Amino acid sequence: MLNDRFQLLIERIERSPKKLYKSLRRLSSLKSISLDFKQSEKNPNENLKKLGQSLKLLSSLQSIDLNFGRCKNITDEGLTNFSESLRKSNFLRSIKLNFESCEKITDKGLTNLSETLKILSSLQSINLDFQSCNRITNIGLKIFSEGINNLVSLRSISLNFDFCKKITDRGLNYLSKNLQGLTFLQSVDLHMNFAITDESVKNLTKSLRKTTLLQSINIDFATNNITDVSLTSLGKGLKILTSLQSIKIDFSACQEITNKGLKDLSEAFKLLSSLQSINLIFDQCNLTDKCVKSLNEGLKSLVFLKSMTLAFSMCKNLTDETLKYLGESLQRLTSLDSINLIFRGNSQITDEGLKIITEGLKNLISLQSINLNLYSSDITNQGLNTLGIALKRLSSLRNLSLNLSGFLLQMTDEFLNHLSEGLQRLTSLRSIDLEFLYCRKITVQGLNTLAEVLKGLHSLEHIRIVFPEYVGIQKERLDGLCQYFKKFDFMKSVQIYKDS
Fold first, then answer.
1. d(C-alpha 167, C-alpha 134), whole Å
2. If the chain, 500 residues long, is cut into consecutive pieces of 10 residues, what is the mean pLDDT of each piece?
């Protein structure tokens, strides 16, 4: 009941901030607080100051989550006043602050925040977002890094300085140097400026090699300055981190990556027997089938993997050979319960490749979630039908997302019929998301068949279907279908609509 009233107050921050702060002061035993001031333009510095004064009285506070993203009038003064108010929060274990696009914050504000953080010896988790704060420089990141170096209890750190245009290799080198002292770190999440190069990636990797308790890594390398040198260094570092359970690395737009770098990275995967989740993003990279073959050599050795995400959007050199190699991995990764394969804009993917992937899916009888994006691939009913048939065997499936949009996709009602037959067997399905944009050959009859099957899946909680504007289904029929699904108590969201 208290949480309900507190949430109501949060929703009225803009209209009655004084009531919020007064209420907070009465909750002296509060252990966790989460407030969203995003895009607030009404006295954000004053809000920070008053909020800080209220937090001073919450002596039991252990967790803070505050979102001031895009509050463009927040300055160093506001951040400093707030930071100073936390210096006696001796029981604080977790702090999450979002100042994305708060463009008036400079090194001074970051420095004052660092002065507070370094004396909060109980901190176990830091999550800070300063994305697009363009007045923060290498100097600010240096001072901040030196401040957190003493937090020996820290288990998790997440920092976002992406699009901070004045941060370069030098800034990331400062951070890397101080991370190596945090020997109890279990999770690292870094999003840095697009100006970083192989130099700082090498130094970061050397530092991470000393945090041998790491279980989770999430690093954004989405910059065209990264080459095979970074992947080779990363591979050497990962080999040592044998406790890793989760890896997410974004290599988007790293167009200098070649087979050599991926081969070195892949060698590391062979030694990470504890890995349960892997997420690799190669969107807009100049990869070839040979590159994916090298990557696959490491992937197929991860026999205990639970979740795999591979994104190759706009990698226009990839062909069905790539899907052949990934199909080999699926034959071996029988512990997978979640798979996401993204091939958006890859026009050389055809029926042959899709058939290989669906053959691999058939063996994953424990699979609970599939996300397959084949937007603008050169696929016909022949390939799509094998996908519909494969679904029949995946009786444990709970979440299904298919993006089969695109002018090249030659889908007709025949596929929708096969899909419907497959869905009938998925009695545990909770969520379905289907996109059929630009598929000019589907008709009302195909969609009606699909709708009738969905009506029989009483396990469904979320439905989203997007189909072309020119399919001649009447608005009244569409509205009626939505209302039909919404009347069930277990249904949480329904979206069925046409898009041009």
1. 9
2. 38 55 77 85 84 87 93 95 93 97 97 96 97 96 95 96 94 94 95 88 94 95 91 95 96 94 96 96 96 96 96 96 95 96 95 94 93 94 91 94 86 91 94 90 86 89 84 67 75 79
Kindly state whether residue 471 falls inside one of the protein's structural domains: yes
Is 240 within a domain?
Answer: no
On whether residue 76 sits in a domain, the answer given is yes
Q: How many domains does the chain have?
A: 2
Q: Is 409 contained in some domain? A: yes
CB 195 within 8 A of CB 163: no
Cβ neighbours of 41 (radius 10 Å): 10
What tokens were used for 303?
A: 């026999």
- Report how far residue 293's alpha carbon sits from residue 299's, in angstroms, rounded to the nearest whole number: 10
The residue among 185, 214, 243 that closes a domain is: 214
C-alpha to C-alpha distance for 154 and 368, rounded to whole angstroms: 34
User: What is d(CA 494, CA 425) in angstroms, rounded to the nearest whole number?
Assistant: 21
- CA nearest 365: which of 328, 402, 394? 394
Residue 43: domain span = 1-214
Cβ(341)–Cβ(375) under 8 Å? no
Read off the DSSP letter of residue 123.
-
- CATH code, domain with 141: 3.80.10.10
